[in-house]
Amino acid sequence: MADPPERTTTLRIGMPLETYVLEGLLGRPFATGAFTSLVNQLAFAAKLVAARVRRAGLVDVLGDTGATNVQGERVQKLDEEANETLFRVLGRRHHCAAAASEEDETIRVLSNDPAAKYLVVFDPLDGSSNIDVNISIGTIFGILRRPMPALPVTEADFLRPGHELIAAGYVIYGSSTMLVLGTEDGVHGFTYDPTIGAFFLSHENIRVPKTGEIYAINEANAELWSPPLRRWVHGLKQPKADGSRGRTQRWVGTLVADAHRTLLRGGIFAYPADRASPAGRLRLLYEANPFAFLFEAAGGAASTGEGRILDVVPTALHQRIPLALGSKADVAEFESALKR
Length: 340
Ligand code: ZN
Prior knowledge:
It is a single chain. This protein is α+β, with helices and mostly antiparallel strands. The chain has helices at residues 17-24, 33-54, 78-90, 227-237, 255-265, 284-297, 328-339; strands spanning 96-101, 108-109, 118-126, 137-145, 167-173, 177-183, 186-193, 198-203, 214-216, 248-249, 268-271, 282-283, 300-303, 320-321, 323-327. Helix 1 (17-24) packs antiparallel against helix 2 and helix 2 (33-54) packs antiparallel against helix 3 (78-90). The two termini are 27 Å apart. Zinc ion (ZN) binds next to strand 3. The site of zinc ion has 5 residues, from strand 3.
């Protein structure tokens, strides 16, 4: 993806997400009324999920389902609830023809209206195993154009390489809730103000720093790694030529949290293939592609270790893929280290 064009309008910190989507994207060829409406639907779904996440310890949404809440409704696990919330909201305005979720076996058709121009892929609650211990979790999404609006949507319509995404983003439910949206207009972050109930532009035009000190990889898998991968990580820890200390390591174990930090601070995140997961662990459609799109739109890179993530043509909805995200230099160095 080319670097985003120089912006002709100036965004202003503090601008509400809805205003950015309505006015900030105005004039961009991809930003039709339907597209802006769809983005606002995703933001609305994020608010509903955030509201549940914020009360997670209070309303019996933790752990296994089977319980009944005070209203006599069956209590769902938070990830199931997030999943249903996204489908319900996306099903409302006939912009989204169908959506594919990491939680579901196959796609759900939401509108047969030929005017429904978009397809959405999402991971409703990434890192949900971390809910019980109050660690950041998130929602990841990507938007594709519906290829043949005259025909019913099929699973094959979703099996397209990530460079066909027109937008991608995520919501991180961390110490604050933030929605990060990437389009060909660049990548912007909006922080949620719960007292007002709106997202406001807080991180304008996010660019992946060219250099970063942090590497993120699950070192518990080291015994399963290939020798070049092990040598690469060992090399990261060594003092630099000028005698300063080597890289520092962080690992949350929630993709959204590790990728968010890497996007803002630079460095590299890697979930490579190993002996136990020769095809990688993360999902191409719901996790790797949206983040690859965001990193490239922010001037960074995303690789399988052998090539560009966004060029991989998916063969199955739930296909897994090795993933590295970071600055261009770090990702290039990772790729060449794996070849040595
Ligand atoms: Zn996930």
